[in-house]
Amino acid sequence: MIRYHDLHKKFEENVVNTFENLGVSVKVVNRYSYTPEDVANADVVIPTGGDGTFLLAASMINDNKKPVIGLNSDPNRSEGYLCLPKRYSTNVRDAVERLNKGDFTWLMRSRIRTTLLVFVGETLSARVSHLQMRLNGSTENTNLKCSGICISTGTGSTSWHLSINRLPVQNVAELLRLIDIDPTEGKDSLATVLSDIYNKNLIFNADDRRMSYTIRELISAAVWPDPKGIKPRGFARKIEIKSNCFEASLVIDGGVSFSFNDGTTALLEIRPEDALRTVVF
């Protein structure tokens, strides 16, 4: 643990020195001392870490004017989907010089107000979540019993959304056998190719103005859902969820939780003014 801490601190020091050598004033804060005042006083926020650090930094940026640019401090152990490409982790100076020259493109990541991923459901995972759901301003509620609902932006579609909906090669192979095709499950097999195509199609653009919702383990039996017809996965521009749960939570970006018990309602939508200003090279 000490080794990885030292690795991160050396990376952080390298980032600070690189900016200061170009005449840029830098203030370093950690997750415990980071405040809205720091954001207000900064021209740009540079989280050094992984996606979790990026999300924490972004959580205090409440408009689409303040840029946030992530640098992955440990690319060998962290994917850092939200950070600059991994090659800049070993060449910070190149990244900073490109930023200084304006050699980049703005990417306005859509957010559900100021978050990228929302989960609603019972806190106890073994308990059924009873929820009411309305899509795109509909006046009709759909009563659901499920294991919770995950709502994602395009940015969040590379994480939990992808994991929940991923189609395993094994499932594709079993479907092919049902139509008298005897597939293998190797690297270049038909089942693997079809699975890869399906899974890649689950990811959508970070600036897409739609949200993707996934109803986990939707109970489709007898009177549920009521009325029938809702798809367990789809897109919407506006989602309203009302809780009929016993002890539920609304969780933002996997880190911040709010009580979401019986009678509580959440309205989720994407607005252009809430977009997160980031860069791509």
Automatic annotation (TrEMBL):
<dbReference type="InterPro" id="IPR017437">
    <property type="entry name" value="ATP-NAD_kinase_PpnK-typ_C"/>
</dbReference>
<dbReference type="GO" id="GO:0005739">
    <property type="term" value="C:mitochondrion"/>
</dbReference>
<comment type="similarity">
    <text>Belongs to the NAD kinase family.</text>
</comment>
<dbReference type="InterPro" id="IPR016064">
    <property type="entry name" value="NAD/diacylglycerol_kinase_sf"/>
</dbReference>
<dbReference type="GO" id="GO:0019674">
    <property type="term" value="P:NAD+ metabolic process"/>
</dbReference>
<dbReference type="GO" id="GO:0003951">
    <property type="term" value="F:NAD+ kinase activity"/>
</dbReference>
<keyword id="KW-0418">Kinase</keyword>
<dbReference type="GO" id="GO:0006741">
    <property type="term" value="P:NADP+ biosynthetic process"/>
</dbReference>
<protein>
    <recommendedName>
        <fullName>NAD(+) kinase</fullName>
        <ecNumber>2.7.1.23</ecNumber>
    </recommendedName>
</protein>
<dbReference type="InterPro" id="IPR002504">
    <property type="entry name" value="NADK"/>
</dbReference>
<keyword id="KW-0808">Transferase</keyword>
<keyword id="KW-0520">NAD</keyword>
<dbReference type="Pfam" id="PF01513">
    <property type="entry name" value="NAD_kinase"/>
</dbReference>
<dbReference type="InterPro" id="IPR017438">
    <property type="entry name" value="ATP-NAD_kinase_N"/>
</dbReference>
<keyword id="KW-0521">NADP</keyword>
